[in-house]
């Protein structure tokens, strides 16, 4: 929402680095801004300052004490990583943020974060036991609860720390009358300074600075309290005909003691119904709900939790709330419901277009739950009055609504409307004894309202606190007190109108290439660590560097595409450097809530770079994969003998940048094309006539054709055995190599030839199948964007899709395969095609463990390139290699040629394609 260029960025490695940086900034009068993952919504982590990014290096769990239920952590530790370590002891850090897979503990402390179960577990402030900090003059200090004697002892020094301990109690005393007037203010508060906590006692500066947004101190270490994990969970999902009816069911849920009560309105549900990533989640629901309420109950056993949950079901039935309920207790039952519950933010952010976006400026107001129904109605009336649409979801048990109106902040009138709505909603929340911020803090968005919220006396006391801790005003200035208007520093108005730019890919859906890059809403889902699962973003997982996240690349592209000459900017060396470590895995297209397609954006940028700077030898080599592989197979085994000796590999590394440590593929003279010209007819399954299932085109990719022909043979034989008539298409490449390397003029020609070849068959209903996911996904994904021609895309699929049909109708009757198979899906398959058919095919043969092991790190040519080799191996070594090495007795299956190469190189194991395992089980 906000954009301010920092003065610089420091990546501290230890507390001494932090102290030195703050001391130097203090001496120079330069602002300092501590930052975690940068996932805040309100502008807390942007400013004209030296940014201290703790996420890259200061991200260690220093000590874990299960006996005492404590953890000592650095500020860059991600919440999920702490919970993973604590979970081994039955513990967790209880404030359950929706961004737990990237939110850092330092950021949570700065923001006083919480989540869906705050009614039971409270906020971050309730779980902080002590802090190591650096004060605004660069001196270190230890903060925690002090007795009267300890406070007196610390007050004697004439240092900044001494003055704070001496003067702060006086400020609290002067603010007591004003604080007394606020005794009815709602407990779930994330804004302002916590003078109320000090007034209540004990004197605990560690808790006092929680929620201060880095405006008072910089945290370098935290001692946090861990909580026992629930042993059993039962969720009740209430189905309602309206949002009002849903909210009316809150009281009954609270009376039964639910740990968390969430609601989602029809606006969100409609978005989910239309989302390919979410529509399958509705299988867990009954009918067509217009609102849902999710209530979680805990107990030592499922029976214990279920008994309380049954009480809610009975209460709703008695009171006439909802038309249906669904109970869930197992992980399989809970997962889709939790995914649907958590989908609100991503769906809202993805629902915007090239001009209008959901904006987080009234995003987390909260009122006592008994007023929530009336408050929601009046909130909606405010939005209707201003002609705004928005979805409502949030934490009903805590009276917190998440509301993001859709607005176009490039328009001055919409900026003015935003301010009017913010003022009206703030007044509305206060009228019900609520708060303006219950979860996401003040930042630039809400700080200017703090005088109204807290009153003159308390606000002036907060200003005194700021002056006491930070007399020179260098600590994240402009937040909480003495803030600029919320309409200053907005991101959208500062970005110039994009200049016209001709592109190879069609980006018109989002208003051009910059519009595609601007789909990134900077929520940082691409910053999750490797321990959090999924694929996105492999380069960030390995480097922990913002520059090498999808968000970092998207920001760089937006800046480049905002230049007066965007074409020249796309050719810039710095942008090329930022994009360099993108593996083009397409995980962001699938896992990012906004489906940012960084692979396509990188390919387009590379094309402009080549146009300005020429194309290097290595790029031309990889772009000519089809031709070189065909020649390599024709000359095999001579090709293999010439290419593998060490002197040859050394020359290849020196002149072409192809790393000598990476094994080259071996070419097969008996390739698929040679075999296909004279292949014998495959016997069909019993009772099946040849060709009775119809025609199929088998896409013979470069790898299946020339280096791994056994895979292609297996696929063709299985198809024919099941009754399909197979034509092998081997004349034209899919253009995947050219697309990956940004050779888009050539790619367009090659892809156009293939589509022209296949379109007549696709139009008469012929299925087009292949074994290599990257090639098949290219037909489905890139070809329509590159050519404006979708005739083939809808007919293309993996060969496993067809073979699964034959397995499930009994045509294929395989013998049992290996006892257990580890299955690793290709990144493009996960993003575009899905891994379901491959996994289900294998399940007809064996027990299957579908690995959640991220990207293998190979990424086609990426792993061959000298400057990328070590990163490639590091990515594979994070999850994939250990998963395979830990199951030595299991067979390994991988659909991608790059994945199989990486597995062989990284583990010494031979991974087979699923169709090879099926072929062996069918034919013996």
TrEMBL record:
MF terms in GO: (R)-2-hydroxyglutarate dehydrogenase activity; 4 iron, 4 sulfur cluster binding; D-lactate dehydrogenase (cytochrome) activity; D-lactate dehydrogenase (NAD+) activity; FAD binding; metal ion binding
This enzyme's EC code(s): 1.1.99.39
Alphabetic keyword roster: 4Fe-4S, FAD, Flavoprotein, Iron, Iron-sulfur, Metal-binding, Oxidoreductase
Domain FAD-binding PCMH-type: 2-229
GO biological process: lactate catabolic process
Similarity annotation: In the N-terminal section; belongs to the FAD-binding oxidoreductase/transferase type 4 family.
Name of the protein: D-2-hydroxyglutarate dehydrogenase
Lineage of the species this protein comes from: Bacteria, Bacillati, Actinomycetota, Actinomycetes, Pseudonocardiales
